[in-house]
Write a structure and sequence with these properties.
Blueprint (H helix, E strand, L loop, with lengths): L1 E2 L4 H5 L6 E5 L2 E6 L2 E6 L10 H7 L2 H9 L3 E8 L5 H6 L18 H15 L4 E11 L2 E4 L11 E4 L3 E4 L5 E3 L2 H14 L2 E2 L7 E2 L2 E14 L2 E16 L6 H4 L3 H25 L1 H4 L9 H11 L3 E8 L6 H15 L11 H27 L8 H22 L6 H64 L130 H5 L32 H4 L8 H44 L4
Parallel strand pairs: 1-15, 5-14, 5-15
Antiparallel strand pairs: 2-3, 3-4, 6-7, 6-10, 6-13, 8-9, 11-12, 13-14
Helix pairs in contact: 3-5, 5-6, 8-10, 8-11, 12-14, 13-14, 14-17
The structure holds adenosine-5'-triphosphate (ATP).
Adenosine-5'-triphosphate binds next to α4 and β12.
């Protein structure tokens, strides 16, 4: 809010000074002894200098925002002769006849030019400032930088730009002098007139617009430069006037009517925008060219500084109160400022951001699945190169407006956008595959955990069995509370024991060893293989000499199994392999290997967990001691999983699983040994008894 001093006319008329200043933006107007209070952000008293106005109006902040890509507007409004032009440009007389303006009197616009150029220098990257200057006179748009053009300019609307003036001359400005020249040229061409209230009255609304393109480095990508298009518009409205007071002639009467009509529309827009209920409804921007061109500044995504100018004269108190009410309504308007960018660059940026997020996600998933980091793909490389090329072309286009490279750029841009979208899509697909694979691995881990728990129980049961047989004394062994039996050699023979010693006391009435164990707990299908000799003692006449005994120490450990079918009846189609029947592999020996899903070349190469040393388990599957592949399903993973780490959670669970199986295997051997000793002892005992009870 700016209150100018009383002018000579007002002083001569002995008008009273009707404004009182209470500080903190509070202003009181004496309306025929009825005080009216108003509050604003800042109130400039008549003594305030032009510098004070520039420093304290928030103009500097507005310029900084424009440099950062926001659309900003400084707009002066108020009654005719209230000091709008004085505030915006300094005294209007200074532009008369090429006079050199007094530096202390220059207004907000000239000061802003200087500040803008200073600030622009401190911003890194390329900057381009362009200026246009127009006026709306009698509801017609005139280019103030190209006044010879006889035609009035059209106000158009586009989805991207909003309302804009077609064919407006735009001057590129590199220095403060260039900007000053634009201002002076426009001010010279502006429609002014003289009337009863102002000798140099503006008869039109003027708009000087600076577009500020700043090319700045993307904080997320040092190779990426983004162009932000900030806008700074200075609006000096024509003043509202009472035709009676301004003593308008025919010509100025028409001007006054147009001015007042457009200001009325502006007032309607401001009151609708300032009312939260009406704001959601229709705002009558289209009712005047002024409001069309101010639509974005008022209610869109811009930031607007409104400077209401009033005279303190009691003679004009009514207009002053109107202006102050107008300003109070305008103060309530809330806009949503956003950074303006080239829509194509914006799209590229959003795609690039999405790609970055997807790449990060991809990297994270790869880490989780222990795949090696993906090298920069061809598509990705070419996209990045194309984008850099595009930016360079854009730069050339900017520097040389005559060069018509737009067609080529458009084509390249379209192609690049398409490729970005393809890359995006492929990353999305790959990521979703990896998510699925991750879920699968998790499920498999859970299965393994469960199986290990079960195997541990089997082992405990077998241990109990052995301890029961060996009387729980020194002959038996105890599992350490945590972990596998310490003394046992996994691939070696069982601990030494007296093979030919007395049979261990058998639990009376207990079943033979294997009858204690539910075979389905640890065998793949069907019952365990028939033991040589069976569980029952053979008839005496069939057993000659040493009873058949399984050579415990010669029994092949599980990792020496050779490929071959199960010796069980009905299961193996081949004959029993040399070296005696082999135990069938445990049904959980390799619960998750799915050879059917593995591509042949993957197996042939011996990559990805299948050993290529020729070792196979009894049924042609990898040994439980080897890590089997678990992630063959996703084709994207064939190549990547080749160097996958051996220390994954899955692998450690799997190796635990293998150890447990080995233990079970050994324990079974031990039980079998006990069983044989038992049988032998019984047969000896039986033959002695028969000798004792024989015919005397
Ligand atoms: N703060 C001020 N200090 C000194 N003189 C001022 C001040 N404000 C305005 N004036 C003077 O008052 C006169 C009218 O001001 P100005 O032309 O800026 O009014 P305006 O609001 O632009 O009027 P119009 O709407 O008719 O164009 C000018 O001579 C100007 O120098």
């Amino acid at each position: 809010m700016g209150v100018r001093p009383l002018n000579s006319q007002e002083q001569n008329r002995n008008d009273t000074f009707c404004a009182q200043f209470h500080g903190g933006g509070r202003l009181e107007i004496q309306n025929f002894n009825q005080p009216k209070q108003f509050g604003y952000n800042v109130v400039f008293e008549p003594e305030a200098s032009q510098e004070d106005v520039f420093d304290n109006s928030g103009m500097k902040k507005l310029i900084d925002m424009a440099l950062n890509g926001y659309a900003c507007t400084a707009l002066a409004f108020g009654q005719t002769g209230s000091g709008k032009t004085h505030t915006m440009t300094g005294p209007p007389q200074q532009f008369e006849g090429g006079k050199h303006p007094d530096p202390d009197m220059v207004g907000l616009m000239q000061r802003s030019f200087t500040y803008l150029l200073q600030q622009a220098e401190s911003v890194a990257g390329n900057k381009v400032i362009r200026a246009s200057y127009l006026e709306i006179y009698n509801e017609q748009v005139i280019d103030l930088l190209n006044p010879n053009q006889k035609r009035y300019l059209q106000v158009r609307w586009s989805k991207n730009k909003g309302f804009y003036v077609e064919n407006l001359f735009v001057a590129e400005c590199e220095s403060v002098d260039d900007l000053m020249a634009v201002l002076e040229e426009g001010m010279r061409n502006r429609q002014t007139g003289s009337h009863g209230l102002n000798e140099f009255s503006s008869r039109s609304h003027s708009m000087l617009t600076l577009t500020i393109d700043t090319e700045q480095q993307d904080p997320d990508d040092e190779n990426l430069y983004l162009t932000k298009r900030g806008k700074l518009t200075f609006v000096d409205l024509a003043g509202s006037e009472k035709v009676k007071d301004s003593e308008s002639s025919d010509m100025t009467l028409k001007e006054s009517n147009n001015i007042n009509r457009s200001l009325l529309v502006l007032g309607n827009c401001i009151s609708s925008l300032g009312d939260p209920k009406k704001r959601q409804g229709h705002i009558p921007y289209r009712d005047s060219k002024l409001t069309k061109l101010l639509a974005d500044s008022l209610g869109g995504n811009g930031v607007t500084l409104m400077i209401a100018c009033v005279t303190p004269s009691s003679h004009h108190v009514h207009e002053t109160i109107n202006t102050l009410r107008y300003a109070s309504r305008a103060k309530k308007i809330k806009t949503k400022p956003i950074v303006k960018m080239d829509p194509r660059e914006k799209l590229i940026l959003s795609l690039k951001r999405e790609i970055k997020i997807l790449r990060n996600e991809n990297g994270y998933l790869r880490q989780q699945l222990e795949f090696p980091a993906k090298p920069k793909g061809e598509l990705q490389k070419s996209n990045d190169e194309k984008f850099m090329k595009f930016l360079k072309t854009q730069g050339k286009e900017t520097n040389d407006p005559k060069t018509n490279v737009k067609g080529g750029t458009e084509e390249g841009l379209y192609e690049m956008l398409q490729e970005y979208m393809i890359e995006n899509e492929s990353l999305r697909t790959e990521n979703s595959e990896m998510h699925q694979a991750k879920d699968k691995v998790k499920r498999e881990q859970q299965l393994m955990y469960r199986e290990n728990e079960r195997l541990t129980k089997v082992i405990e049961k077998l241990e109990r069995e052995i301890n029961g047989r060996s009387g729980g004394g020194n002959g038996g062994w105890q599992r350490q509370p945590n972990g596998p039996p310490p003394q046992r050699q996994v691939n070696g023979p069982p601990p030494p024991r007296q093979v030919n010693g007395p049979p261990p006391p058998r639990q009376s009435g207990g079943p033979p060893p294997h009858q204690n164990l539910p075979p389905e707990q640890y065998y793949d299908q069907g019952p365990p293989p028939p033991r040589q000799g069976g569980n029952k003692p053979p008839p005496n006449n069939q057993w000659k000499g040493t009873p058949p005994q399984r050579p415990i120490n010669n029994r092949p450990p599980p990792d020496q199994y050779i490929p071959g079918p199960s010796p069980q009846a009905g299961r193996g189609k081949q004959s029993t392999p040399p070296g005696g029947p082999k135990r069938p592999p445990h049904r959980l020996a390799d619960p998750i290997a799915r050879t059917a899903n593995i591509p042949p070349e993957y197996i042939q190469n011996g990559i990805g967990g299948y050993p290529d040393d020729g070792y196979m388990s009894p049924r042609g599957r990898p040994s439980p001691l080897h890590n089997g592949p678990i992630r063959q399903e996703s084709p994207a993973r064939y190549n990547d999983s080749r160097r996958s780490s051996q220390v994954s959670t899955s692998d450690s669970i799997r190796s635990m699983n293998a150890k447990l199986k080995q233990e079970i295997y050994d324990l079974e051997g031990e039980i079998e040994h006990h069983h044989n000793v038992n049988q032998r002892a019984k047969s000896i005992y039986g033959s002695q008894a028969s000798m004792r009870s024989g015919p005397r």
